Amino acid sequence: MSEVKLVLSYKETIQSKLDERTKELIIHAKNASQNAHAPYSSFHVGAALLLSDGEIVAGANQENAAYPSGLCAERVALFKFGFDKRDRYLVKAAVAVPQIKGENLVPPCGACLQVFAEYRAMQSTPIEIVLVNGSGKVLIAPDIYTFLPFAFTNRSFKYFI
Questions:
Q1: What percentage of the chain has pLDDT greater than the value 70?
Q2: 74, 103, 118, 128: which is the annotated catalytic residue?
Q3: To bridge 49 with a disulfide, which of 22, 42, 57, 78 should be the other Cys (CB 3.0-4.6 Å)?
Q4: Is 63 a residue of the active site?
Q5: Can you supply a Gene Ontology BP term from the record (predicted)?
């Protein structure tokens, strides 16, 4: 058995040190969190996707009394992109949880990471992920695979054929 060593590449910073386009994307994600439907968890999350042509697509989490029928903010935005914008590709995504303060940051859940990985495999270019909290702390990962290095994608099927 061979040993696998994973190197997680990311950087932590604060919002004021970011480029203007990333700051704008974060603002869209924070604003989207205000449209969350979260009557059960009170956990408001916003996501914003930067597309290759500069357009921004946003989404917020949508809960439902018939759990798990709701969707996370990331998948709301990703499925909007997948339905309407497939002639472009994803450059960057910001995920904002403004109610979280201090040092804590909230990454996308496993289901959202899997959906990100599907689009990442289709476009063959990295999707930068930006996490931000209500205190302005930011984590930037150069690619979705930082969070899900062994993603199951359409390329995984070759092992089953």
A1: 91
A2: 74
A3: 57
A4: no
A5: nucleobase-containing small molecule metabolic process
